[in-house]
Write a structure and sequence with these properties.
20% strand; alpha/beta; 6-stranded mixed β-sheet; 298 residues
């Protein structure tokens, strides 16, 4: 018998200092920095400084046009190793914050202390957006609160909390698990659009990285997020479009959850998924979530 304990959290980082600082503060405040595992692409000094006290797993910044494939092979391997020791392993990107609805009286740590194991939990995906005319405050200490609007992002409803053997697909969007376990209080807030200035600075670095990968590819092809390509950027237009969208009344997302369950089906290579449709409306995140992404260490 093996009695696994605690929670490990896995991410990868190269140069995202803004998000890594908040990621370490949030997950480290919940589980302790010794339970955080940061794959450091290029073993940068920034990652070692911001991630002090965390487990840094350095990988070299080799010349490759297959970074996304290597990235997810490494995450899966580390997740599988840690799962032998921890009750739950969380796998997420550095700009993803998994939050339990404060209405439950729990946070991610206290919920997982009692949550069932031998499963894969999927968090409901929401993407925080910056409405610049309504939300002028900075996001220096926390994001939820200064930013109060989000769009449903089914692409970010990820199988991100693992306590059984399974492979997670490239991008983290699918898993080898035939049951959709979607707790009604569990959210993944993706912060890519949380601040216009942060977005522009981040995309400049993403564009440069993709261009380097393209130069190494025989035909210039790179398989990664299409939004990472410079020619697909429309920064001002993207954020202006957020301002024009209707804001739904209330925070009832039951119709989205029902659609996810109704479309749940097998995918290729043993993976399972639900249909990923887009929703036109924005939602105002309830005030009870303000500061939920900022957890002070014990």
């Amino acid at each position: 018998m093996i009695e696994r304990q605690g929670v490990a959290v896995v991410t990868i980082c190269r140069d995202d200092a803004f998000f890594l600082k908040r990621w370490v503060e949030y997950y480290g405040g919940l589980f302790g920095r010794s339970s955080l595992y940061i794959i450091s692409h290029g073993d940068t000094e920034m990652v070692r400084t911001v991630g002090a006290g965390c487990n840094i797993v350095p990988v070299p910044a080799i010349r490759t046009d297959k970074f996304t494939m290597l990235h997810w092979r490494t995450k899966n391997a580390l997740k599988d190793a840690l799962r032998q020791w921890y009750a739950h392993v969380i796998v997420c990107d550095v700009d993803e914050f998994i939050v339990v609805d404060p209405e439950t009286g729990l946070n991610l740590k206290t919920w997982l202390e009692e949550a069932a194991t031998n499963t894969v939990y999927t968090a409901f995906g929401m993407e925080i957006v910056h409405l610049r005319t309504l939300e002028p405050d900075p996001v220096e200490t926390h994001i939820l609160g200064p930013r109060r609007h989000a769009q449903v992002a089914m692409h970010y409803a990820k199988p991100c909390i693992v306590s059984r053997a399974c492979r997670i697909a490239r991008g983290g969007h699918y898993a080898e698990h035939d049951k959709l376990n979607l707790p009604p209080f569990l959210y993944l807030f993706h912060m890519r659009y949380c601040d216009f200035d942060v977005y522009v600075e981040t995309m400049e670095r993403r564009n440069s990285f993709v261009e380097t990968q393209q130069s190494l590819s025989d035909d210039g092809t790179v398989r990664t997020n299409p939004k990472w390509f410079r020619e697909n950027r429309k920064d001002i237009e993207t954020f202006e479009a957020f301002e024009r969208r209707e804001v739904a009344s209330g925070f009832d997302l039951g119709h989205v959850r029902r659609a996810m369950y109704a479309s749940w089906e097998p995918r290729s290579h043993g993976m399972w998924h639900f249909h990923r449709r887009e929703f036109d409306e924005l939602y105002r995140v309830p005030d009870r979530f303000a500061g939920a992404d900022l957890i002070a260490p014990d």
